Predict the 3D structure of the following.
Amino acid sequence: MLTCRELTEIVTEYLERRLSLRDRLRFQMHVGMCFACRRYLRQMRQVMRILGRMPDVPPPTDFREEMLRRFRDWQGRARGLPPAKA
Ligand SMILES: [Zn+2]
């Protein structure tokens, strides 16, 4: 079983379909049981979708880095919350 931390480390690979079948299943199993990670995955999907739409317009330098940095901050704050009820 993945921990929430492990899940956040491989979420990009998951969304880019770069995980092995085994890791993919472990990922989905965790998301199915963990409300916090479900919410996290949903937000990550939105970020990826937004970033995916950018290529036609040259993004400001460091835009992606800035987004990722903000997201990591948000993630850190989310970790400080008590665990979601099962
Ligand atoms: Zn989790």
In short: Helices lie at 4-15, 21-33, 35-53, 63-79. The CA atoms of residues 1 and 39 lie 18 Å apart. The two ends are 16 Å apart (CA to CA). DSSP finds four helices and no strands in the chain.
